[in-house]
Specification:
- By secondary structure, this protein is an alpha+beta fold.
- It has one domain.
- Helix content is about 45%, strand content about 15%.
- It has 6 helices and 4 strands, in the order ββαββααααα.
- It has a 4-stranded antiparallel β-sheet with strand order 2-1-3-4, with helices on one face.
- α2 crosses α6 and α5 runs antiparallel to α6.
- The radius of gyration is 19 Å and the shape is globular.
- It starts with 5 loop residues before the first strand and ends in a 9-residue tail after the last helix.
């Protein structure tokens, strides 16, 4: 029996002109085994999604085997649905998963940054793939403290499984900063791809917000983890 896909539903009600709200939605389906999106490739994707267009220097994909950039393809549907939304527009955003429903009122760019992060982590990019575990346990609109906790926890679990398989574990989190530096490089190149798209700015600003956090997190890991160290006092007794 095949497993059911994991569904995460985003629904936005955007403030419009003359009190006419605009509704937008996106359903993300994840393969339960690979944790990659089950979205069929659109016919004739736009040229800016081709792999050779500003391909990341650290990208391991071969242009002869991969015609398109997975991260760029993940934005096509987002642009089709949300491309005309201006970044500063206020929205009521609701995210529904199998476990919970989360609602927030915020700007379009901040709401979209959550969706963008989810789609990028599950797009099939071999660099972004390390964020698949966090996508599986998606927590939309999380605070900085929550994200640091989840990122550090996911990384340490990866080290645990790596050690069990015979590898060398990085218990000091030294590789976590390097991982986020790679993500930053992907974000920068992807932003360069999208700057030429004649549409709204919310999608691009959503990526910028995501990247600002990517840059800030490695610098704040030690500080943020030190601030929550007292929560684990019971383990020191």
């Amino acid at each position: 029996m095949s497993k059911k896909p994991i569904e995460i539903r985003y629904h936005f009600v955007c403030d419009g002109e003359a009190d006419q709200p605009v509704e937008k939605h996106c359903v993300v389906q994840l393969d339960p085994d690979t944790l990659e999106t089950r979205h069929p490739l659109k016919p004739a994707p736009p040229d800016w999604t081709r792999l050779e267009v500003k391909q990341c220097d650290i990208c391991p994909l071969d242009q002869s085997k991969h015609a398109y950039c997975p991260a760029a393809l993940s934005f096509v549907e987002i642009l089709q649905e949300f491309g005309e939304i201006l970044s500063y527009r206020l929205v009521n955003a609701t995210v529904t998963t199998g476990e919970r429903t989360v609602t927030i009122r915020t700007t379009a760019q901040k709401a979209l940054s959550s969706l963008v992060g989810l789609r990028m982590a599950t797009c099939g990019c071999p660099i972004l793939a390390k964020f698949k575990p966090m996508a599986r346990f998606h927590l939309p609109f999380s605070s900085t403290e929550e994200t640091v906790y989840r990122a550090a926890g996911a990384y340490l679990l990866a080290q645990y499984f790596l050690r069990r398989s015979g590898g060398k574990a990085d218990w000091d989190l030294d590789g976590l900063s390097a991982l986020y530096e790679e993500i930053h490089q992907v974000n920068v190149q992807l932003a360069e791809r999208m700057r030429t798209i004649p549409t709204g700015d919310a999608h691009l600003n959503a990526l910028v917000i995501l990247d600002l956090f990517t840059l800030a997190l490695p610098q704040s890991i030690d500080e943020n983890l030190s601030e929550i160290e007292h929560l684990f006092a019971a383990y020191f007794d």
